[in-house]
Each structure stands twice: as C-alpha cells, then as structure tokens.
C-alpha cells in the first residue's frame, strides 16, 4: 500500500502541474463554460482516472525507462514515431515555459527579476535531476500534498463565506475565453494536454515498479484524488470568479484576497508545482535522448535544462495559447492508442502481473535469511523469469533490487 500511495502522489504531482496550481487552465478549460464546466471537470476526472491507471500499468508491464520503447510496442510504427516526436518536442517546449513561469511567479509576488526566478528554478531542477527515478518520483509525490491542502482550504473557506446570491456568476464566468469549445471537447482536450505532458514521466515511474497491478492501483488512486481536486478547484474558482476574473494567476489572486500571508504561501506552493512539472519534463527528456545512445543521462540532462533556461528569456505565452489545444488533440490520440492496446492485451498484463508477484515472493524468500528457500523454489523462480515478457537479467535485477530495498526498509523500521 505504501508503494501504491507513492505512485498515486507522484502521478497527481505530475498531472496537476503548474497550470492547475495557478488556476489558469481550470478557468480556461472549464469555468469559461459556466456551470457546464463543472460537469466538464467530472468528465475529465473520469478519463484521467482510467487513462492514468492504464499508462502506469503499461509502463510497469514493459519496465519502461523512457516512452519510445512503449510507443513502439503499443502502436503502428508511423503512429509510434508521430507520438514519440510529439512528446519529445512537448517535453522541451513545456519545460522551458515552466522555467519562464517560475520567473514570472516570483517577480509578481516578491519583485525578483524574472531571470533570477528562472535561474533559481533551473538550479533546483538540476539538483533534483541528479537523483535516480525513484527518488525523483518521491520528491514529486512529497510536494503534492501542498497543493491538495491549499485547494481544500480555499474550497472550505469559500463554502463558509459563500454569497447568498450566485445567479450572476454564470454570466461572468462565461465571459472568460476558452481555447477549445464546446465544454465536452474542452474537457477532453484538457485530458489530452495533461496526459501528453505527463505520459513520459508517468511511464518511467510505472516502469520503476515491477508489479503492473501495483502500478495500476497507484494510477487509479491518483486519478480519483485528481478528480476530487479538479472538481473542488473548479467549484471554488467558479464561486470566486468576481475576484479572480482577468488574473494571470487566479489561485494566487484568490488567496491574496483572503490574506496577503496566504498569498505569499500560495506563491511558494505554485513555485513547487512549477518545479514538479519542470523536473518531470526535463528528466523524461533526458531519458528519451539517451535511450538509444551510449551517452550518460546526467550530462545530457544538464545540457538540455541549461538550454531550456536560455530559451526561457524569450516570450512564448501567446505561442503556447495556440499550441496547447494542438497538444491536447495529440494527447487524445495517445490516450486512445494506449487504452486500445491495454484492452487487447489485458489478459497478458494480468497474467504477467500474477507471475511477477510470485517471482517477488520467491526472491524475497531467497534474500531473507529467516525464510525458507528450497531447490524447488529456485527452479520455479528460474522458470517464471524465463516466461516473462522482460529479459531475464533485467527482470531478475529489478525485482532483486526491490526486495533488498524492502528488507532494508523493514529492518530500519524495526
């Protein structure tokens, strides 16, 4: 359960990201349609839960360490290449936009020069990128509760202080611009955007866990939590639309209206959420660029992140306003491809999950001094590893590392 929860929090941290934390995407994709936008949030949450569970489970099934090898296995070569190029370009584009956004966030709230805020974010991303993927996912997951607490607090405060007359809010909300319409298409486009941004790192996180069942449950749990947060955020911003209309950072404007101190706290939380998105983009990009070469990950990661910082000085806000809907539609193609493959292959995935759970049990018995491990167990372990879709050496090493880590953690707790 601990590992499942860790997967869930990392997934939420990736998919919430900076746009959700600022409230800007929630306003544009949902609240701009008035009350219908709330139903859009419900629809988006359902799709996110289903797709997130599938993506993480598929990542685990292939023990993915980058997205290209997964796309090659689940899609036609032409579709696979298209998705690979789209995701790779998106990772870099959104990565440097996040660095620029960090600069703008700190400039707006604290008066820091935008280049200094972007440089600070670049330094934090570079430091986190030196960790292995499990540590990176733990960092992302550890920061996620901050935005959860902030959104829930804003919702409770709004409910307690809700105005008696809300009949005029729908008209104000619908005055906001949306990049996509009608509300159903907007909700689905938002799904495509969020998941195309998060698919590469989500596959890597899923691939860090040998059990597809565990990864799928983590995605399911994360999706349910994400749905609750999205609906709460949509209702909260709808009821505060008079306060936040026209704001570049609606969540910050709303918190600032409650208390300047809360505004400062929210600015810091938004900075952390921008970090979650930025590290997810650049880490996954580094993994992709070094997947088929002999180059080591860290130097490439450092170079692409520094290039991203250099490009962050150029204004891309208007460009991204037009690019985001396109990314969303490409993301919908990716969702359909992944879910269609999962439906066709679910029997194999479930069988492999059961096989790996048994391999895990046998490996635990072998590594734990107090458990019995017989010659029959050894033969069964060798047979099961040979039947897996993953190469023997890779699967053996992955599960052995997991077991040793679990044993070490249990000994520390004792």
Automatic annotation (TrEMBL):
Domain of life, source organism: Bacteria
Membrane-crossing segments per the record: 39-64, 85-103, 115-133, 140-160, 180-205, 217-241, 261-285, 297-316, 322-343
Alphabetically ordered keywords of this record: Membrane, Transmembrane, Transmembrane helix
Protein name: Putative membrane protein
Lineage: Bacteria, Bacillati, Actinomycetota, Actinomycetes, Mycobacteriales
């Amino acid at each position: 359960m601990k590992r499942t929860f860790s997967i869930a929090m990392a997934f939420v941290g990736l998919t919430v990201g900076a746009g959700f934390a600022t409230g800007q995407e929630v306003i544009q994709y949902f609240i701009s349609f008035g009350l219908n936008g709330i139903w859009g949030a419900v629809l988006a949450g359902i799709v996110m839960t289903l797709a997130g569970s599938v993506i993480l489970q598929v990542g685990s099934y292939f023990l993915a360490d980058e997205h290209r090898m997964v796309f090659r296995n689940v899609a036609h070569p032409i579709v696979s290449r298209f998705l690979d190029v789209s995701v790779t370009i998106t990772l870099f584009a959104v990565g440097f936009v996040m660095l620029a956004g960090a600069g703008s966030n700190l400039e707006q709230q604290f008066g820091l020069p935008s280049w200094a805020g972007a440089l600070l974010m670049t330094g934090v991303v570079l430091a986190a990128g030196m960790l292995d993927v499990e540590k990176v996912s733990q960092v992302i997951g550890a920061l996620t509760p901050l935005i959860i607490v902030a959104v829930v607090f804003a919702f409770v405060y709004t409910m307690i202080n809700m105005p008696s007359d809300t009949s005029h809010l729908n008209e104000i909300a619908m005055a906001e611009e949306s990049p996509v319409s009608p509300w159903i298409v907007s909700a689905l486009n938002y799904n495509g955007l969020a998941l195309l941004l998060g698919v590469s790192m989500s596959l890597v996180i899923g691939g860090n866990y040998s059990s597809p069942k565990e990864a799928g449950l983590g995605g399911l749990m994360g999706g349910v939590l994400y749905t609750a947060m999205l609906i709460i955020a949509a209702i909260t911003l709808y009821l505060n639309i008079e306060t936040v209309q026209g704001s570049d950072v609606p969540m910050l404007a709303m918190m600032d209206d409650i208390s300047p101190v809360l505004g400062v706290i929210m600015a810091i939380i938004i900075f952390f959420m921008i970090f979650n998105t930025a590290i997810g983009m650049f880490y996954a990009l580094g993994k992709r660029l070094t997947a088929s070469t002999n180059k080591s990950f860290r130097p490439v990661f450092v170079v692409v992140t520094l290039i991203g910082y250099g490009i962050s000085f150029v204004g891309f806000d208007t460009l991204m306003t037009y690019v985001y809907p396109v990314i969303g539609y490409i993301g919908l193609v990716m969702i359909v491809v992944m879910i269609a493959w999962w439906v066709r292959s679910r029997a194999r995935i479930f069988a492999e999950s059961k096989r790996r759970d048994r391999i895990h049990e046998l490996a635990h018995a072998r590594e734990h001094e107090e458990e019995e491990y017989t010659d029959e167990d050894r033969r069964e372990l060798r047979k099961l590893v040979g039947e897996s879709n993953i190469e023997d050496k890779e699967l053996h090493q992955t599960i052995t590392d997991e077991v040793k880590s679990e044993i070490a953690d249990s000994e520390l707790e004792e």
